[in-house]
Amino acid sequence: MHLNKVPEPEFQVAAITEPKDDLSAAVRTARRVCPYLFPASLPRHVVIKPNLCDITSWETGVTTDPRWMAALTVELRSIRPDVQIRVVESDAISAYKSYRSCDETFERLGFVSAAREAGIELVNLSRCDTIELRLDGVPMPVRIPELFLAEMLFISVANLKVHPYTRMTGILKNSLGLLSDADISSFHPHLSALISGLHLLCPPDLCIIDGRIGLEGQGPIIGYPVQMNTILFGNDALATDEAACHLMGIPPQQVPHLHQTAKDLKRSFGQFKTIGEIHPKPFAFDSLETHRAILTKFRIRRFYQRMDLFTSRWVDRAHRLRHNPISFARSAVSKLVGGRREQ
Question: Model's pTM, two decimal places?
Answer without folding.
Answer: 0.82
